[in-house]
Amino acid sequence: MTDQSPHRYAAPSVESVIAATKPYAPPMNGAAHDGLPIIMWGDIDKAVPPDRLVHGLLGEGRFAAFYGAPKSGKTFLVSHLCMCVALGWDFFGRRVRQGAILYVAAEGADGLKNRILGARLYYEIPHNIEVPFAVVPVAVNLGPNGEDVAKVIAATVELERRTGHPVRIVVLDTLARVMPGADENSVADMGATLARADRIIKETGATVILVHHSGKSADAGPRGSTALPGALDTIVKVVKSDTGERIATVEAQRDGREGDAFSFRLEQVAIGLDDDDDILTAVLVSVDDATTAPQAKRRDPTGNTGVVFRALQRAIGDGGEEAPASTHIPNGARVVSPDRWREYAYKMMAEATPDARQKAFKRAHDSLISTGFVGVWGANAWVI
Fold first, then answer.
1. Residues 122, 175: contact at Cβ < 8 Å?
2. Calpha distance 69→127 (Å, rounded)
3. In terms of domains, do 145 and 95 share one?
4. CA-CA-CA-CA dihedral for 202, 203, 207, 208, to nearest 10
5. pLDDT per residue as tens digits for the range 222-278
């Protein structure tokens, strides 16, 4: 009787399998394969970096979420990341691949615009520099009944046409606002929304970043259906400590490192004047290392004085000229006329009454000169 025990089976050697396998022959005359694309084992010979968009953090054409409790700083972090990609700046010491940003501000568009203005002033980015960063200031519907996915894709095409830069990131802020009427806890509703976001990735090649809320507790993960984390390549959690410091942690990565953390704080910046009150926003400043984020050249004045000071910086950045030879003006200084300075300051205080603007400018003008931030001589004003 023959022993039928499976333990008697001897596996064939690798050599015998290879010998019996017919070599792959490409289609005759270069004909394309009619079925699914096939990549043979032997053709896979190069490692693909998983984080070519932001080194050590984000890949290209991926799906990511930055989440946290309200006021944790998640939107500040995402908008700062996008600014770095648009400008080609390192992000917390991580090199980036520069490109265009489409930021769908479905929640808090005015606040985002103020943050962009604050960053432009704080980091002294000239107003006339073309930065490939565009804001969609309305909510879009990408939920189960939504029909706006084609509009988002069309916006990326238009942005690339206008800037000449490929769109690297599409931000959906927040997830809840782009799936109106849907149930975040429903696998079906969440799955339909994620499928639309995935279509944006596939048709544009951009990385999609969701700004999302945390669950009921700090350790509950992103709010809603478990379908969400399963679909994501990168998950970053943002928390606010008792000291006000914010900590962002790479909680999950499909490929690449997990557990990396970086800390930041939010610093107030005055960007305008509304009657007698400052219009304030905040900018992100790294607290990990002075070299890990772009730094302002100096600590600027605050309040109304800060607004008027930044008006001079912007006026010089937009149209400053080399100072005439003078023993009263530093060599190499760039100058504008005091009238030009006043014009820019009044634009930044557009919401205030004419009388309030005039008084604020006069007080700030005198203060900036007396404290050594600004020099004025004749028809020339400059930053010291």
1. no
2. 33
3. yes
4. -90
5. 999 999 999 999 999 999 998 889 999 999 999 888 999 999 999 988 888 776 677
